[in-house]
Amino acid sequence: MTLKDIIGNKDAVTALEGMIRDGRVPHAMMLYENDGCGAMALTLAFLSDLFDSERKVSGLMHPDVHYVYPVASGTKVNEKVEKLRAELFLGYWRDLIKTNPYALESEINDAFGVAGKQTSINNAEAKEILETIYLTPVEGGWKAVVVYLPEKMNAAAANRLLKAVEEPPEKTVFMMITHAPEKVLQTISSRCQALRVHPLSKSEVAEVLESRFEKEEGDALAAAQVAGGSIGEALRYLSGKEDYEEQMSIFSGLMEALGSKDLNSALNYAEALAGLGSREKQKAFCKFAAENLRKVFLLQQKLPQIAGLAPGEESFLAPVATKCKKSFPRQALSCLDRAALLIDRNVLQRIIFCDLVCRLYSIF
Fold first, then answer.
1. What span, in angstroms and rounded, lies between the C-alpha atoms of 223 and 235?
2. How far apart are CA 61 and CA 178, in angstroms?
3. Which residues are CB-neighbours of 74 under 8 A, at least 6 positions away?
4. Count of beta carbons in the 10 Å neighbourhood of residue 226
5. Least C-beta-crowded within 10 Å: which of 151, 165, 243, 343?
6. pTM
7. CA angle in degrees (0–180, nearest 5) for 42-46-193
8. DSSP 54-106
9. Tens digit of each residue's pLDDT (9 = 90 or more) over 227-237
10. Cβ count near 55 (within 10 Å)
11. In 3D, which of 215, 184, 222 has the Cα closest to residue 70?
């Protein structure tokens, strides 16, 4: 895949093409995306053009492109924390990303066997990067370090990398892909050229699903309606409707309990959320609920045509939009953001979701 093959994000593609054409490639770039919206695909396409080697870069085989991502000891790699490095997981990373560069964070964790674990980029990884980037390029051209989720880099690792990110060796570029730029160490983010990777339109999502992943038109259109502009979410919807159905079952039951002013019933759903298999699934529910509250808000504004409703959703969400206060969707988003933050901080799940449900009950 090269930049000319990228669907959507035309401004970002044009900017990256201009950098290569004009010979003005920044030493470090930070691409901000919503999970699964295509920053990795865009990065690989950019590097394919920069290195003039589509086959090697897209196949994750180029010797001068190095990948860094958060890891943890798990079922596939069991190692002491101080010795954990991305290289130990490279085979799993390559198998997943070369077939699906839109993979979600939770899918990457599943591939690594670390679902439910607290992943990070540690100091040993930073030391490995520094040792690598000062070596002569194998093919004599550019070198690149792709850092996936730099917000999970601990302070020691970030500080060790700081000088290299600020003044890397000649013809070396750092490409960082973040889902939460506000969590990236300021000294790192301030030295990067920022580039926003926007969610795709529904037609663009459907086009990618049909052209790259060979999905049927009807399935592609249905997935595009619920994906929120994320190819990764659309693919998960198509491959695992069980997850969608589980999330919708909890969300719909919770909204019905709130609408009936039945706190005891609502708290049962707090228990269900605390019992989900991993922190990734719990955060995924927060994101799922936020997306549905966006649809509720648009229904309240009489704008169902831009809400992106999947088949059958309007019959449930329209009554929610009628019953809840006009301020509920906006205030509920803050509650969900808070819950996701507490999940990241490893607060006891039952406390998080009991608190969330009580907050939602008070503002419904």
1. 7
2. 23
3. 112, 113, 114, 115, 117
4. 23
5. 243
6. 0.77
7. 85
8. HHHHHTT--TTEEEE--B---SS----GGG--GGGGHHHHHHHHTT-TT--HH
9. 889 999 899 88
10. 9
11. 184
